[in-house]
Design goal:
The complex is a heterotrimer.
Chain A: E1 2-6, H1 10-22, E2 26-30, H2 33-43, E3 47-51, H3 59-68, E4 77-81, H4 86-95, E5 99-102, H5 107-117
Parallel strand pairs in A: 1-2, 1-3, 3-4, 4-5
Helix pairs in contact in A: 2-3
Chain B: H1 3-30, H2 36-55, H3 59-76, H4 85-106, H5 112-126, H6 146-152, H7 167-177, H8 196-199, E1 204-212, H9 214-218, H10 223-233, E2 236-241, E3 259-266, H11 270-276, E4 284-290, H12 297-324, H13 331-337, H14 346-350, H15 361-367, H16 379-405, H17 413-436, E5 437-439, H18 441-444, H19 447-458, E6 462-467, E7 472-474, H20 475-496, H21 500-505, E8 512-521, E9 524-531, H22 538-547, H23 559-563, H24 587-596, E10 600-606, E11 610-618, E12 623-631, E13 634-639, E14 643-647, E15 654-657, E16 661-666, E17 669-675, H25 676-679, E18 693-698, E19 704-709, E20 711-719, E21 733-738, E22 744-748, H26 750-757, H27 766-769
Parallel strand pairs in B: 6-8, 13-22, 17-19
Antiparallel strand pairs in B: 1-3, 1-4, 2-3, 5-7, 8-9, 9-11, 10-11, 12-13, 12-20, 14-18, 15-16, 16-17, 18-19, 21-22
Helix pairs in contact in B: 1-2, 1-4, 2-3, 3-4, 3-5, 4-5, 16-17, 19-20, 20-24
Chain C: H1 4-11, E1 13-20, E2 23-28, E3 32-37, E4 51-57, E5 60-66, H2 67-70, E6 83-89, E7 92-98, E8 100-107, E9 112-113, H3 121-125, E10 127-133, E11 136-141, H4 148-154
Parallel strand pairs in C: 2-11, 5-7
Antiparallel strand pairs in C: 1-2, 1-8, 3-6, 4-5, 6-7, 9-10, 10-11
The chains are: A alpha/beta, B alpha+beta, C alpha+beta.
């Protein structure tokens, strides 16, 4: 299963990669929303994990753009965020996010969340 | 190295970048160049520091970053205008954030009082008190919202009970899963008030019924997956209620018509079952009841109504979003291919003939500037590559030498092939060096803070202008730029710029300007530090030099020579020794350390208008062109940049001077002779200059000397190897290199050798300066 | 109750033992990077007598310390039998010139005396502990004490 992680923080991308690779997933990465769309279009992904606060195109814009593409309408998107602000979580959901992961995350919880949304 | 440790290193590297972005953004805001994206970037920088810090359980850092972030969020949402005093506060807050990061990195203790005061100040702004007097330290405890606390500040421990019954196995499990991540799971009080279940775990039958709304599928959630998750908890029996299903011609693929009822037998708590629906709870009607229990109809209705209201809004938004997209007119295919519940855009179904209005996002994204594709490579691999290319250069040079020695004509096949090899080798070398080249930005970006601090200490108003931050230079040089630039800037502000009153009296802006610039010139990197201050007071400089015996009272010096007297050892222009320029290191030491790197530093000045320091360094410290010489059976390398010419003295040109000394007549002047072999202790008796070769070199104060060697082997480019990485600096030796035969040869530090000859001890502060 | 076998296994340490003259010394095997034969070193000027100079270790410049000289023992000119033990000292790697490698020791903690009582004070200052086994007495070298000049610089 291929997972696309979109986060402008290298630390967070490395963290995710470590946890995901350990769990046996393939990981591709992008540094912002725009880059995320490119990487997604070039490689495809089974699950997308995205940050919210990013330069160029933020997580909301990215999710909306992904959902606009029929090819990815059924691709699960998990929002990765430290935001505990319910309004933000809700905005992500309205944009089309499938679920969320709160940072800092436990690897097992991360994998569990993926399993919960991925076929 | 442990993977997590590696990520931690990455985190701190990233912090450096984020802190630089933060500072640059704030500086742009200060000058009014910032826009909303600048503010966003500033916010993101602090946000990302906080996020990473949370992952590593760096609580003090998280707590401080949180307060900072909160204020920036207010700025971002235009609650507080980012002008004037606030930006200066934010800049200082950024400095303290940098200190916090450093403390977290080194495990040191940050300035507690300073941090507390800043937190109080930031909170003052958050609470709308603006520049009002900051509350006392008592108010320093940062107000982190309980919501955030619950998740971010979970202690860095993992409950291992789940993993291992026996202690031995437990330690293995520890390694495997790593105690590394903060668990996300926090104990949540049982909101439904059903504690009994927790106390008596055991299999229990539950009736889970849920009716997905269209919005659930619009977010790529799947009923099947939810059922699968439920099945993980225990055996399930599933019933599907399709009574809501409409006939095919009325079917709206966007809608959801099915209700699922699941009988689940499990020892899991209701909490755990509810967790399965965590992501979809707002997009479905859900009831979880113990088998035999009945739903409270009113509550369910109420909840259902609320859910429907939310769902309507969501559906509306989904529709709005869907309208942005236009599908190719193939509705039947869409319906047929997609599972019943899978959402298809209503527009496409309702209006199959809808024209194609917009390009898919794929194309839209491609129109944007492509982010530069980069690869990350361990620097050690590049270093190794550079080493290898260096060896290649050496071997190629030696081969060329041998071919020459065998008398092949330059037009011979072999000689021409060698020429091509040489060009290829140099090409490879340039390319490899370019890989390691970095913009000087990483050094420059540390300077605004320095300038702010020195300005504060001196009570001067300073504007720093930076140019050419993108100028690239080899990593080895980057590392050595920081100290001299720091000294030049300190000096420019401390000695160059006047105080505000003096400046106004002189008809200048009260705020002085210091310009820091980097550029490439003549195969070297040049750093300029220019101030618009008073310029060098030449009569005073000259007087000091005379008083200190550095020059004779009658010495005739050009303006330029006078200016550069400040680099002489023991010179200090400040009437009072300030701890800013001072720090025990004079410009003489700066010059020495620069020259040790094959660099030069000088100053020019115009009275009343200001001064300019100019520093030039080779673009790399990885290789140098050297003269390979023999001295008392040892092979040494002398940097070519230091050598003016090489001579074979005739007996009448060498004159004895004192018991051990000798001078050489070079045209109209006499230069002191320095026997390399005896200075380095390779031999006990002086070698007569007439029996060997003399390398005429220019030393630190522009004076000349003749280095006596036994013989010259030739010129060669050599790879510079540090002695310090495994041992320490050695007097008289700049570095080492490896020759074609695999032996180590030492590279001479010309100035140090001349200084050793004079029996003047090497400056003890030299190490500190580097 | 702890398993006595695994307990002692846990405490077992390994050392590379070597000779200088008649005496036996050792270093913790964890600090040893490699062992190589002697090759002539390029002398470094202005350095203590015990620094033999530097050699090329696969592209890196490796300083060589004459351990006999450092310990104040009789130092012989290196021969073909001489050996360089390449050890890590914190961030640095240096080569220790010794007469010959004699053994690899696997020792339980109880065989190591922490307060050695050896005759020569100079030797004593570089020795961390004393291993007695099979009638031999082997002094463990405290690597980090061999280059005091580095500490002074780092300060």
């Amino acid at each position: 299963m291929r997972i696309l992680t979109v986060d402008d923080s290298r630390t967070m991308r490395d963290m995710l990669r470590m946890a995901l690779v350990k769990a046996g997933f393939n990981v591709i990465e992008a540094v912002d929303g725009e880059h995320g769309l490119e990487v997604l279009n070039a490689n495809g992904a089974d699950v997308i994990i995205t940050d919210i606060n990013m330069p160029k195109m933020d997580g909301f814009g990215f999710i909306e753009a992904v959902r606009e593409d029929a090819a990815y309408r059924a691709t699960p998107i998990l929002v990765l965020t430290t935001e505990s602000d319910p309004a933000k979580k809700d905005r992500a959901r309205r944009a089309g996010a499938t679920g969320w992961i709160v940072k800092p995350f436990h690897p097992e919880k991360l994998v569990e969340a993926i399993r919960r949304v991925a076929a | 190295m442990d993977e997590l440790e590696q990520i931690k290193i990455t985190f701190f590297q990233e912090c450096d970048e984020l802190l630089a972005d933060l500072e640059n953004g704030l500086l742009a805001m200060e000058t009014g160049e910032g826009d909303s994206e600048t503010v966003n970037a500033v916010f993101r920088a602090v946000h990302s520091v906080k996020g990473g810090a949370g992952a590593f359980g760096l609580e003090a850092l998280v707590r401080y970053a949180h307060v900072f972030e909160t204020l920036l969020d207010d700025v971002r949402s235009n609650k507080i205008p980012a002008v004037g005093e606030l930006v200066r506060v934010l800049l200082r807050a950024a400095d303290i954030l940098a200190d916090q990061v450093t403390a977290a990195r080194t495990g040191g203790t940050p300035d507690v009082d300073g941090t507390a005061a800043m937190v109080a100040e930031l909170e003052g702004w958050i609470n709308g008190q603006g520049g009002a007097a900051a509350p006392g330290p008592a108010a320093a405890a940062p107000a982190v919202s309980a919501d955030d606390m619950g998740i971010s500040f979970t202690p860095m421990t993992v409950s291992v009970d789940d993993f291992a019954p026996a202690p031995v196995a437990m330690s293995i499990a520890d390694d495997d899963i790593g105690i590394t991540f903060t668990p996300m799971q926090v104990e949540i009080p049982d909101v439904d008030g059903e504690p009994a279940l927790d106390e008596f775990p055991g299999d229990q039958a539950w009736i889970v019924s849920f009716h997905p709304h269209a919005a659930l599928y619009a977010k790529a959630n799947e009923t099947a997956l939810l059922l699968r998750e439920l099945e993980r908890l225990g055996p399930i029996e599933v019933q599907m209620d399709e009574s809501d299903l409409v006939s095919l011609e009325h079917l709206d693929p966007e809608s959801a018509y099915l209700t699922w009822t699941v009988r689940l037998t499990t020892d899991a708590t209701e909490e755990v079952i509810r967790d399965v629906f965590e992501f979809v709870s707002d997009d479905c009607e859900l009831s979880i009841l113990r088998d035999g229990e009945e739903a409270l109809p009113e509550l369910a209705d109420e909840a259902g109504a609320a859910v429907e209201a939310v769902d309507e809004v969501a559906a509306l938004i989904a529709q709005i979003n869907a309208e942005k997209v236009v599908q190719p007119p193939a509705p039947m295919a869409l319906v047929a291919e997609a599972p019943v519940a899978a959402p298809a855009p209503p527009l496409a179904v309702a209006a199959p003939a809808a024209p194609v209005k917009a390009a898919p996002p794929k194309a839209a994204a491609n129109e944007q500037a492509q982010p530069q594709a980069t690869i990350r490579v361990d620097p050690e691999r590049i270093d190794r590559l550079i080493d290898l290319v260096g060896e290649l250069v050496i071997n190629q040079a030696m081969l060329a030498q041998r071919v020459g020695a065998h008398g092949f004509a330059p037009s011979s096949d072999i000689a021409m092939g060698l020429d091509e090899l040489e060009q290829l080798t140099r090409g490879i070398q340039d390319s490899v060096m370019a890989i390691r080249a970095q913009p000087v930005k990483s050094v420059f970006q540390r300077m605004p803070r320095l300038v702010r601090e020195v300005a504060n200490q001196t009570g001067k108003q300073v504007r720093l202008v930076m140019d050419g931050e993108g100028t690239e230079v080899d990593k080895t040089v980057i590392e050595r730029l920081s100290d001299p630039i720091t000294h030049m800037l300190r000096n420019a502000i401390d000695h160059g710029l006047e105080g505000p009153e003096d400046r106004v009296a002189a008809g200048k802006n009260a705020e002085g300007t210091v310009r820091l610039a980097a550029l490439h010139r003549g195969g070297r990197i040049v750093i300029e530090v220019q101030d618009d201050g008073r310029g060098i007071n030449r009569p005073r400089v000259r007087q000091i030099a005379v008083d200190k015996g550095l020059i004779g009272p009658d010495a005739v010096l050009s303006d330029e020579e006078t200016d550069n007297l400040i680099f002489l050892p023991g010179f200090s222009t400040a009437a009072k020794v300030s701890d800013i320029s001072g720090r025990g290191v004079g410009m003489d030491v700066v010059r020495r350390s620069v020259q040790a790197l094959g660099g030069r530093i000088s100053i020019t000045s115009r009275p009343g208008e200001g001064s300019t320091f100019t520093l030039s360094l080779p673009l790399t410290l990885a290789v140098l062109d050297g003269m390979v010489i023999d001295v008392a059976g040892h092979t040494l390398v002398v940097p070519l940049t230091a050598i003016i010419e090489s001579l074979r003295p005739k007996p009448d040109e060498v004159k004895a001077l004192g018991p051990q000394g000798a001078v050489l007549a070079v045209r109209d002047t006499y230069v002191p002779l320095v026997d390399i072999g005896s200075v380095l202790g390779f031999r006990n008796t002086l070698m007569p200059a007439t029996e060997g070769v003399v390398l005429l070199v220019e030393n630190e104060d522009g004076g000349r000397a003749g280095l006596v060697a036994d013989a010259i082997q030739g010129q060669r480019q050599v790879v510079i190897k540090s002695l310090e990485s495994n041992y320490r600096q050695v007097d008289g030796i700049a570095a080492a290199t490896i020759l074609g035969d695999g032996r180590v040869a030492l590279i001479l530090d010309v100035d140090a050798v001349v200084a050793l000859r004079r029996r003047t001890p090497i400056e003890p502060t030299l190490h500190a300066a580097e | 109750m702890a398993d006595p076998v695994s307990q002692s296994t846990f405490d077992r340490r390994e050392f590379i033992a070597f000779c200088i003259g008649e005496q036996e010394f050792c270093v913790d095997i964890m600090s040893v990077r490699e062992i190589r034969g002697w090759s002539p070193a390029t002398p470094l000027p202005q350095t203590p007598e015990y620094m033999r100079g530097v050699i090329n270790l696969r592209g890196a410049v490796l300083p060589i310390m004459d351990l006999a000289c450092r310990l104040g023992l009789a130092s012989n000119e290196p021969s073909e039998r001489s050996v360089i033990i390449v050890v890590r000292m914190g961030e640095r790697t240096i080569g220790l010139l010794v007469d010959a490698v004699s053994d690899i020791l696997s020792v339980t903690q109880d065989l190591i005396q922490t307060t050695p009582d050896v005759a020569c004070d100079k030797v004593k200052s570089f020795v961390r502990g004393l291993i007695t086994m099979e009638g031999r007495m082997i002094s463990e070298i405290a690597n980090e004490r061999l280059l005091p000049e580095l500490e002074a610089l780092a300060a």
